Automatic annotation (TrEMBL):
Segments forming domain ABC3 transporter permease C-terminal: 274-394, 736-851
Membrane association type: Multi-pass membrane protein
Similarity comment: Belongs to the ABC-4 integral membrane protein family.
Transmembrane segments: 269-295, 318-342, 362-384, 411-431, 443-475, 496-516, 732-757, 784-804, 824-845
Start and end residues of each stretch annotated as Disordered: 113-133
Keywords from the UniProt entry: Cell membrane, Membrane, Transmembrane, Transmembrane helix
Annotated InterPro entries: ABC3_permease_C, MacB_PCD, Macrolide_Exporter_MacB
Main location: membrane
Subcellular location: Cell membrane
Official protein name in the record: FtsX-like permease family protein
Span of domain MacB-like periplasmic core: 19-236, 499-701
Length: 859
């Protein structure tokens, strides 16, 4: 009980100092809990949507079992005959059955030809309005579509784009463009996360989406009263026999959930990873806080030991304080996490993904995990300072000798840190020398972990040398004040090392990702200059294929010298060695592709691969299957027949563009795949006539005005788009890393604040002999800047090493240019100095306000 009272008294006596550490715990726990609440809420939203929109049993084509990939390649959804509806109705336990048609391989534009597709990556769905939809949606204005000239849309899409009854829309599919006027607006009875949904009447949907009547994409089946979904499914299967995909409502919801599960898992684990980084940085803050508090209470601990307190009791007292800190920070963090989740929902709403707070999901495991993590991390971080406190002897403490110093500890730390760093450097070397990216990535991960731990361990040893160099370069110009700031930073290398290490982690990741991102852009740019010989590229950024109408518009453009179509389809390969290859795709192009793309070959000429019944293979494929020029490969084309093709060229397996591709001509593909099953064009390459590039570019853009889903780019545009995509990804990562930087700043603030308290009497004496308040504040600011720059140097050095090694692995995938973004690195270094200045504002202000006489009298 006495230990508990002592711990409570000490905890409450240092409220301000504990608050900063509690904020670090709070932020880390909030990020973990916020991530879990946010992703759980997303899951709940989709679960409710899929449960509400799934009929008791759904019947569809077997081809639809792979997520509708057939739709993406030939532009038409897989269908089943309308007669299936009558067959299903004959099954026992069926109350009703209704056919429907829908497709996601569509683009819808308004009267100004602006795309209505979601900007959040959600699907655009066009389907037939039926009773199953009427069960889950309410028509809020107008009426359901009747006839070819009417279309209805969901309320969210109507609101986002300011659309209403009477406005004109155009539905663009592989079969052409269909124009209709809005007849009504319908709202979901559950939350629509962000899909754009449009409804036609059934005959029109069949004509527009499939091109024929008498077929459906699926049949919705409703069970009679008292019949379970599972029993209904068995009855339907018994009536239909094989050849169809039959799912209960639960199975359909699970299948749909898998479609979004990957995206949610990537988001969830990425955010949790950044939360883990913030926790790691927070550990240094907590260790520093308790180390300094123990040092400041040396005499008090000596008195406790002198009157009978054991080492265990002293140790326990410090750990109880850490437990209190962890509990307070974690409880507040859980609450803040829920608020963060709501904020993320609002942010996602701003970019088009709607999530309702009515679906807010806080599972009991979320606060439990937050509390467990926060308390365990805090107590573990405080263990070393608590252990050192227990080692203080009563006599040494009463003489105010501080925590025991052990010369061997410094040597052990230095040797251990150097061994870990050396092992990490060796692992990074092996990663860079690896022949396969998969092997090298394991060495890279090991090297990052070992070098990071090594730098953390050896940080106090490095602090002495690095701070002296920084002091000589930056602080000597400030005279005695600069020298005092340098000595203060050197006074406790362990403290300086731990504070700098907290900043080091975040900046190391920033530097590494900057190098990787910049190298990717530089490598891709070089590869484009080296390989791409065409002037223009027409494609959809979301992977949607070009309709024949769009391809025809490109070919009809004035000023173009040649146009090359690029198709891709699934295929199976049986090689001369009798093996069936794991490679499952073949690229079909026009013969002019050999001119438009300077693909490197190791044997033969690429142009020969476009002769009838010919193909190319990549070098690795040829080596694995002992293929040479003239060998034949049996190719089973998806949706068509198997053909025997002769290998006329072997291309390099390296390169960032089309690495590992196997080519044939579109004419050869058409010989084995019927016209209705031919894949649509994935991309079109176009080149201008001599001297007509600018005019052809303008004409091509004008030709594609009617197809807003497709982008027309020249090589400069393509490079800029690539740079923007990588830049947006890096900016998002930097934003998440900002959490770790914020926690690191709190660490600097806490270290300085506690350092000021520790040096109260010293500060009073300096003021007494003539040091002004302005000079005192400058001294503390300079000390903070040196600590921040020390952490920045370590972090940037580590990050550059990690990034350069990662680029060596990317080189194995064709991205061979190492580009170090020196302006970014320099900006981060200079920014670290401002971080140090910002962190010192409050401690410096408080130090300047100290009463000189009271400070001198402090013991």
């Amino acid at each position: 009980m006495t230990v508990l009272k002592t711990s409570m008294r000490n905890f409450l006596a240092h409220k301000g100092r504990m608050a900063l550490s509690a904020v670090a715990v709070l932020l880390s726990v909030a990020f973990v809990c916020g991530t879990l609440v946010f992703t759980d809420t997303m899951g709940t939203t989709f679960d409710k949507l899929f449960a509400a929109t799934s009929s008791d049993v759904t019947v569809s084509s077997k081809d639809a079992s792979e997520g509708g990939e057939t739709t993406a390649r030939n532009g038409r959804p897989p269908v089943i005959p309308a007669s299936v509806v009558d067959e299903v109705k004959r099954a026992d336990g069926v109350r009703a059955a209704e056919g429907a048609v829908f497709s996601t391989a569509v683009t819808v534009v308004d009267g100004d030809r602006d795309s209505l597709s979601p900007t959040n990556g959600g699907p655009t769905i066009v389907g037939s309005w039926n009773s199953n939809d009427a069960r889950t949606m309410d028509i809020t204005s107008g009426a359901a579509p009747k006839g070819a000239g009417q279309v209805m849309l969901d309320a969210d899409t109507a609101e986002k784009h300011g659309l209403g009854v009477g406005d004109e829309l155009s539905v663009i599919t592989a079969l052409g463009t269909h124009t209709a006027k809005i007849s009504g607006v319908a709202d979901f009875t559950v939350t629509n996360p962000g899909a754009a949904i449009f409804f036609l009447d059934t005959p029109t949907a069949q004509k527009v989406l499939v091109g024929e009547t008498g077929v459906y994409t699926d049949v919705s089946v409703t069970a009679a009263e008292g019949v379970s979904d599972d029993q209904l499914k068995q009855n339907v299967l018994a009536e239909l026999g094989g050849g169809y995909r039959v799912l209960t409502a639960e199975e359909a919801a699970e299948a749909n959930q898998k479609g979004v599960e990957g995206f949610m898992n990537v988001m969830k684990y990425a955010m949790l990873g950044f939360a883990g980084i913030a926790f790691l940085v927070g550990i240094f803050l907590i260790i520093n806080t308790f180390s300094m508090l123990v040092a400041q209470r040396t005499r008090e601990i000596g008195l406790m030991r002198a009157i009978g307190s054991s080492r265990r009791q002293v140790n326990r007292s410090v750990l109880i304080e850490a437990l209190l800190l962890g509990v307070v920070g974690s409880v507040l963090g859980v609450g803040a996490g829920v608020g963060l989740a709501v904020g993320l929902m609002k942010l996602m709403g701003a970019v088009g993904m709607e999530l309702s707070t009515s679906d807010l999901t806080v599972a009991w495991t979320t606060p439990a995990l937050g509390l467990l993590l926060g308390v365990v991390v805090t107590v573990l971080a405080a263990y070393l300072p608590a252990r050192r406190a227990g080692k203080i002897s009563p006599m040494a403490a009463l003489r105010d000798a501080g925590t025991p110093a052990d010369g061997r500890t410094g040597w052990v730390r230095a040797v251990t840190g150097l061994v870990l760093t050396g092992g990490g450097a060796a692992a990074l070397y092996l990663a860079g020398a690896a022949d396969k990216a998969t092997d090298g990535s394991m060495w890279l991960g090991l090297g990052i972990v070992l070098t990071l731990i090594g730098f953390v361990v050896v940080g106090p040893v490095l602090a002495s040398g690095v701070v002296r160099v920084l002091g000589a370069v930056l602080l000597r110009a400030f005279g005695p004040v600069g020298r005092m700031a340098e000595r203060n930073a050197l006074r406790n290398p362990r403290r300086t090392g731990a504070t700098g290490a907290a900043l080091m982690i975040g900046l190391a990741l920033v530097a590494c990702l900057s190098v990787v991102g910049s190298s990717m852009v530089a490598s891709a740019t070089e590869e484009l200059d080296k390989v791409v010989g065409t002037d223009f590229i027409v494609q959809d950024d979301n992977g949607q294929r070009l309709s024949p109408e769009a391809v025809a518009a490109v070919k009809a453009t004035d000023g173009l010298d040649r146009v090359t179509e690029y198709k891709w389809t699934e295929a199976g390969f049986t090689t001369p060695d009798g093996k069936t290859s794991d490679d499952t795709a073949i690229t079909a192009v026009d013969p002019t592709y050999a001119v438009d793309m300077r693909i490197e070959t190791v044997e033969g000429k690429l142009a020969d691969a476009f002769r009838p019944d010919s193909m190319s293979v990549h070098e690795d494929f040829a080596k694995d299957h002992d293929i040479t020029l003239g060998s034949t490969v049996d190719v089973a084309f998806e949706g068509g027949r198997t053909g025997t093709l002769t290998v006329r060229a072997v291309t390099s397996s390296e390169g960032a563009i089309d690495a590992g591709a196997m080519y044939t001509s579109i004419d050869t593909l058409a010989r084995y795949v019927p016209a209705e099953k031919m894949p649509l064009t994935l991309m079109v390459l176009a080149s201008a006539e001599d001297g007509q590039k600018d005019a052809a570019y303008a004409a091509l853009k004008q030709s594609m005005d009617g197809f807003p889903q497709f982008e027309v780019r020249d090589q400069t545009d393509y490079k800029e788009a690539l740079k923007d995509q990588i830049g947006q990804l890096l900016n998002m990562i930097y934003g998440l890393l900002a959490l770790a930087i914020v926690v690191a700043i709190l660490g600097v603030v806490n270290t300085l604040a506690l350092s000021v308290v520790e040096r109260t009497r010293e500060i009073g004496l300096m003021r007494a002999i003539g040091l002004s308040r302005r000079q005192l504040r400058r001294m503390i600011r300079m000390e903070s800047v040196v600590i921040a720059l020390f952490g920045a140097l370590l972090g940037l050095g580590l990050g550059l090493g990690w990034g350069a090694t990662a680029q060596q692995l990317l080189a194995l995938e064709g991205l061979k240019v190492l580009d170090i973004p020196w302006p970014t690195i320099a900006g981060v270094f200079v920014g670290s100095a401002f971080v140090g200045l910002f962190a010192a504002l409050v401690p410096a202000f408080r130090a300047g306000r100290m009463n000189v006489l009271n400070a001198i009298a402090t013991e």
